[in-house]
Amino acid sequence: MGRLLVLLGVLLCAGAAAQTVTLSGSMGDKALLVIDGTPRMVAVGATLHGVKVISVNGNDAVVELAGKRVPLQLGGAPVNLGGGASDGTGSQIVMIAGPGGHFITGGSINGKPVQFVVDTGATMVALSQADADRIGLNYKNGQRGMASTANGTVPVMRTSLNVVRIGDVQVFNVEAMVVPMQMEAVLLGNSFLTRFQMKRENDRLTLDRRP
After folding, report:
1. Which of 166, 113, 158 is nearest to 138 (CA)?
2. Which of 9, 77, 162, 203 is most buried by its number of CB atoms within 10 A?
3. Residue 32, exposed/middle/buried by CB under 10 A (0-12, 13-18, 19+)?
4. Is the pTM of this model over 0.85?
5. Angle at 173 between CA 104 and CA 102, to 5 degrees
6. 61-117: per-residue pLDDT in tens?
7. Is residue 53 within 8 Å of residue 39, measured between CB atoms?
8. CA-to-CA distance for 176 and 179, rounded, in angstroms?
């Protein structure tokens, strides 16, 4: 009977173990992990669904998953139970509102990590020249234009992003514009959002890829 209970406990733990995990942000000694599509705040030393946070350092964290220590990078691809990167074929993004009610998440543009904030009022993905230069975006030969912002009308450069990725979901050929002013995050506008069905429940935003 005792062995049966132990075996049952092992099976239950295995069933509850995470299959994928990614780093979406950090706060002090806590990592904002997306575990199997659900955002979770986990402190250093704590374990949740089989994922133990070993260390947190700004845009990086180290977790222990299935007995292996795995480095995570903000905006990087999720890792699966075996410790390898996922293939980006996911269809759902889940975000939890942060301070001020904004939906902020880590992700990547053309494989380079960035911080996104959802902006349903933005026609397309918008990023600052500083971010565009940092990630090596070739935008200077793009189409010139003007855009209305909170600071008035400003000149912009329109371009196309090869790949925009959040968690296990990646979208190709996304229209974007590069603006001259400083921005705290990349605006995740409608050139990305319209590829999804959006559903908000209290502080939870779910994006399901359209067929």
Report:
1. 158
2. 77
3. buried
4. no
5. 10
6. 899 887 888 888 776 666 765 555 556 678 888 888 877 888 888 888 998 888 899
7. no
8. 10
